[in-house]
Amino acid sequence: MKPLNYIVVSEEEGLYDTVMRQINEEIPDARIRRAGTVREGVAILEKTGSGIILTDLKDFEYHRNTMRFPWNRENEEAGQAPDDSLAYIPETFRGNTKADLGLVKRYIRMHLEEDLSLDTLSRMACLSPNYLSSLFKKREGESLKKYIERQRIERAAYLLLTEDSMMSEIAVRVGYRYCSYFCSVFKEYYGMSPLQFRLKNREQKKRKEKTI
User: Fold this and answer.
1) CATH code, 38
2) Is 72 helix (H, G, I), strand (E, B) or coil?
3) This model's pTM is above 0.70
4) Is the pLDDT higher at 176 or at 26?
């Protein structure tokens, strides 16, 4: 396997030396280069044919559609991507995983009623879809799809207990276009329909109030 090229792009002084030292500890034969801008980093990748950009610059959003992690021109032209995109990225620099995933999870919780497709989330996080999917599964222990589904159903359960809104309205508010599908998914999680869930919990609340 050819040595990987790592291109470090940052305005922070001293970052290059830190990155170089830590990458060399994990991948001794890695080739590490410095770039002043993301555009310059992409230009280096185009010349070398393969590599990984490590950056903390916001303008990476501009280039997100031109790359995959790890990026390889031959694979790109063939429409192929590595089976495990995480395997080539040192542990220390895997996309600042805690910050990346924290941003994704926070966005999901705040936009449950909107489109939360993998493409939408990867664009928001400035990560490739394959990388985000692999990263989320590896770090969170569940797929991105399952996490979104769980957040939607748990929010629906809260709304059922705190409001008198109709099932169809709650379904839309947590991202389900069809109430029937929402009820089906809800039952998988709680073992009962949304209406049964609401009635059961209200009955339990009344009994508790009577005993006080």
Assistant:
1) 3.40.50
2) strand
3) no
4) 176
